[in-house]
């Protein structure tokens, strides 16, 4: 299964997960996706804290990137597992596919909470609802069902997921539901101004690289596509949001940022106006949401990656009616 439609059985699926978690007497390992973003870290850490408050044995396994590290306390960080111990449960959040999960192998009893349309609905129990703005929204509903008392420590990471996945409540997924939820979470004592400020901090090398990255900006298809890349040899922590800067090029329906990695070239794809970043990502072996998706082009360099990318974007621009000859 693979669909962008809301889950008509959302409440029942969530209830089943809540019951399974309440009944749990064995350790629960909580993991998320590689290159974790604010929703991955926020939804998983918020749920881990809520379940600990319920008295569950919870081990949160994640490596937050530098800009999200402040959310977690040192003693909350646990190293990756080679195997999931016999009898334990693995809870996977915000992970579009099992292959994107990091921190533990996807084995044993698996619970999958996610909002990516491309999620194949893996696991023994799952709640996958692409109409939710963030996995953090699913976690918010789940924590309510579990009846855990909200504290700023639980609400802050959950709100982080909503803030980052909606681009500070600006993207098309900023529904009335997400705004209501955010208001509720702020009411539980989150320091909103401090949180949004802190989430935007980037290391000095990010700003030193910014000029060089902007020099790589190119327009294709008469400006419908804007691209940029991290020049070879430059290493920048927290480079994810360069795509967030170029996506505002006037006239661009799609923006792609490319970064060389040991395994290949990582693409961050954003789109608007009926063009699907998801469709482009899927055609290149990746996945994600309609307006924000990604893929890794394995075993190739930047030049080859551009050569793969351009026809994939062209096909989507044609399909969406923006490009014809
Ligand atoms: P980003 O460009 O920020 O890394 O990713 C944008 C969205 O696409 C995120 O929701 C992310 O989980 C998803 N995504 C990124 N890369 C991949 C990929 O290689 N495969 C899949 N299935 N999803 C991806
Ligand atoms: Mn997400």
Automatic annotation (TrEMBL):
EC number(s) reported in the record: 3.1.-.-
A Pfam family this chain is assigned to: DHHA1
Domain DHHA1 intervals: 230-303
Ranges where the DDH domain occurs: 29-161
Keywords: Hydrolase
Molecular function GO labels: hydrolase activity; nucleic acid binding
Record flagged with keyword Hydrolase: yes
Enzyme class: hydrolase
PANTHER family: BIFUNCTIONAL OLIGORIBONUCLEASE AND PAP PHOSPHATASE NRNA
Protein's recorded name: Bifunctional oligoribonuclease and PAP phosphatase NrnA
Organism name: Meiothermus granaticius NBRC 107808
